[in-house]
Amino acid sequence: MLLTPNAMGRPLRFGLYATTGVIAAFLLLPILFIVLLSFGSSQWLVFPPPGWTLKWYGQFFSNPEWMDAALASLKVAVLTTVCAVALGLPTAFALVRGRFPGREMLYGLFTLPMIVPLVIIAVAVYALFLKLGYTGTLFAFVVSHVIVALPFTIISIINSLKLFDQSIEDAAVICGASRLQAIFKVTFPAIRPGMIAGGLFAFLVSWDEVVLSVMMASPNLQTLPVKMWTTLRQDLTPVIAVASTLLIGLSLLVMLIAAALRRRNPVSA
Fold first, then answer.
1. How many helices and strands, by DSSP H and E, does the chain display?
2. How far apart are CA 211 and CA 199, in angstroms?
3. What residue stretch is flagged as signal peptide (predicted)?
């Protein structure tokens, strides 16, 4: 009995779906457990929870230390996003449209933080800021986060620039606009989805960063991941699960925004 291609493909598709489901469950179930633990009534991280309560959320939002850490994370992430886009935009233009020796090497240099182990970057940045006396400052946090977030922003903007037809910008110049006016009124709106996506990636990198943040932290300034790290060394309170849930929730929200932008602008994004 001969099997048709469709009949032969069904077991393969089933195996693919089953494998994908197992991998997805392996990756997502721990996250789901953390979210459930944040609503558990036990004072320890016990699964399954013996009951359900919202008191740990009340403790989180009423604790000034946790709130200060969350606000510090948000402030650092926003400043990192702004700086990454402001630096990544001209860098992407130079790498795409520039014609100078060493351009490919420069591109590799800017993407190096994606390859080098993060702990190496953290030690190097910490040594630099320790010598300059900037450890434990907002400036040190933002600069260190921009170092690791900038490659994602540059790559995103570069992809949008490569897909953009520069002849449209040239046509605006022929019609009487200056090159700068054409860039601001024609090119920037066309590559805006790439700029926004790069900014969202930078925000996510900064929002979840813990290795660099541990190096830059001080008793007066620490981000939410650092606060979670220091608390874990002392106690396994479910408030940590609450903080983790908030980190996951905001990260998921940013990813949904990026997906919506990509769906609206499938070519540019």
1. 12, 0
2. 21
3. none
Cβ atoms of 95 and 158 within 8 Å: the answer is yes
Task: Give the residue from 11, 142, 162 showing the smallest Cα distance to 78.
Answer: 142
Q: Shortest CA distance to 115 belongs to which of 155, 159, 148, 143?
A: 148
Q: Which ranges in the chain belong to alpha helices (H)?
A: 5-37, 55-62, 64-97, 103-110, 118-132, 138-163, 166-174, 179-182, 188-208, 211-216, 224-232, 239-264
Residue 2 binned pLDDT confidence (cut-offs 50, 70, 90): very low
216-233 pLDDT per residue, tens: 888 888 888 888 888 887
**Beta carbons of 222 and 213 less than 8 angstroms apart:** yes
**Assigned token pair, 77:** 């992430």
Q: Is residue 140 part of a domain?
A: yes
Record the pTM: 0.82
* Structural domain contains residue 14: no
Provide the number of structural domains found in the chain: 1
Amino acid identity for residue 171 in this structure: A
Q: What CATH number should be reported for the domain holding residue 66? A: 1.10.3720.10
221-239 residues labelled b (16+ CB within 10 A) or e (exposed) = bbbbbbbbbebeeeeebbb
User: What is the DSSP code (8-state) at residue 114?
Assistant: G
User: Which residue segment(s) compose the domain that 89 sits in?
Assistant: 56-264
Q: 């805006």: which residue's tokens? A: 192
Both tokens assigned to 108: 């590799």
Residue 247 belongs to some domain of the structure: yes
The pLDDT confidence band at residue 177, using thresholds 50, 70 and 90, is confident
User: Looking at the domain assignment, is residue 244 inside a domain?
Assistant: yes
Tokens 């606000």 belong to 71
Average pLDDT, the chain: 83
Strand partners, 235: none
